[in-house]
Amino acid sequence: MKQSTQQSTDGHIQQEPDLEQNAGTLTSDLDLEKLGRERPACFSSLGSELAFCFSVVMSQILAEFYITGSNVITPTLVKELDIPEASTIWPATALSLVVTSTLLIFGRLTDMYGAYAIYVAGAIWLTISSILCGVSQTWLMLIICRALQGLALAALLPSGITILGSTYRPGPRKNLVFSVYGACAALGFFAGFFFSGVCSEFTTWRWYFFVGAILSAITAVSSIFSIPRDYSEKRSWGIRMDWIGLGLSVPGATFLVFSIAESSFAPQGWKTPYIPLFLILGVILLGIFTYVEGWVISNPLLHGDIFRVKYMTPLTIALLCLYGSLGIFLLYGVFYMSEIMGATPLQIVAWTVPMAVGGLILSATGGFILHKVSGTLLLLISCLGYVGSGLLFALIPVGGNYWAYVFPSMICGTIAIDISFNLANIFITTSVPKARQGRRVP
């Protein structure tokens, strides 16, 4: 077929796109859509793909299991291990502190040695550290073992995202898998409450950690046989550790988080001398880290060009605010239900069921709509969920009704968490080069 031409104002001849070219573009789009629905070639069957997905989504379940469940058993731990009042936050906070401080480091290790090695090692270490938590005889031993669990989760989370992002190409199948992955956050949230509540009521708090150890061991075994190995590929890229960034980021994040977490329980609050000291040291070290990573070294832990991806910077700022409010909702929502509303551990389990059910519903439907609905609209809906979940607890009066306040708050919470988590991870793993996906922004 002949192509028609026209002369532009500057005398150059420009070709008009013909029907054959348009047809080729349409065919290409259809091929990409088809590829986005197909099972990745690394899986020999549907069963192998399901085993792979189970292994990876378990990291999300275990992370939420250990983050949320510890809040329910904290009163029991304080009583049985005779934890001093000033240290009551650390059975829960020690894990989060270590995850925050070392997440970037394990992201770099993932890029260096492959996601398979780091993920399997993280699952094995989580099994061991969970058993150590269960056999702890003193509150200090328990806190140290909780910190060791944080190292395991810091290894599992970035490597798990890298595995999913590099295995699936953009399309409906990837959206569905990430929807299930995001829904497992709500499922793990509920599982943490459920097992900690049941163990507190009927057995001993130690079984909460033993159950987690069993789940971690199952995850480790499944991962060894179902996750594709990528060590040779990653080593061929020649990525090295940024020791300067490690030396600045770990103590900087540790000091900052420690000062904020400890400020409420220090003898004189913020007036306690070591609180502002650690806060200032943390800010200074993180400031130096930002300067060195952005303008001095050539192979930083987090490359600045990631933020040159369109929409990445505003998305990161939004996630910072949203996840910050999520932590407040999860922690103080539980405290409100137990301390103000007088709910028993099993009542809290029952009251949080809507989050688990809502997460499963969103996982079943999200994969079919994420690629058809505007990401901006979905993020706005998620933001409204975050606002609603916190606002309902802020407005609930003393003696307030569960169905009028707590139930809709749980519904808003699962909408907020699942949509924002899925949207952010799909966007980042699609936009960021494969060699850098271990250092994901959230």
Automatic annotation (TrEMBL):
InterPro entries assigned to the protein according to its UniProt record, in alphabetical order: MFS, MFS_dom, MFS_trans_sf
Compartment list: Membrane
Bias kind Polar residues: ranges: 1-12
Annotated keywords: Membrane, Transmembrane, Transmembrane helix
One of the record's GO molecular function terms: transmembrane transporter activity
Pfam families per the UniProt record, alphabetical: MFS_1
Segments passing through the bilayer: 46-68, 88-106, 113-132, 138-164, 176-195, 207-227, 239-261, 273-292, 313-336, 348-370, 377-396, 402-428
Domain Major facilitator superfamily (MFS) profile residues, every copy: 52-442
Protein name: Major facilitator superfamily (MFS) profile domain-containing protein
